[in-house]
Design a protein that fits this description.
With 70 residues, the chain is mainly alpha-helical. It is 47% helix and 0% strand.
């Protein structure tokens, strides 16, 4: 079920340029899901990255995230 949910989420968010990790079904099982690894800053630690962004970029990023979840 979770793998299917991730696939549906990936399909719906792709048009917003939001990436959801690909699932490695060949390495996943009933109790474990193995996903693609993304390099970068975790969302929970993004405040320093956001602080360095120009205001216009922050606004555009926020708008894209809001649009994606509504």
């Amino acid at each position: 079920i979770e793998i299917d949910n991730m696939a549906a989420l990936r399909a719906s968010l792709t048009r917003h340029r939001i990436r959801i990790p690909e699932v490695r079904e060949d390495l996943s099982g009933r109790r474990l899901i193995v996903m693609e690894r993304f390099d970068g800053t975790p969302v929970g630690k993004a405040s320093s990255v956001l602080a360095e962004m120009p205001a216009e970029t922050r606004k555009a990023t926020a708008a894209r995230l809001v649009e994606a979840v509504l």
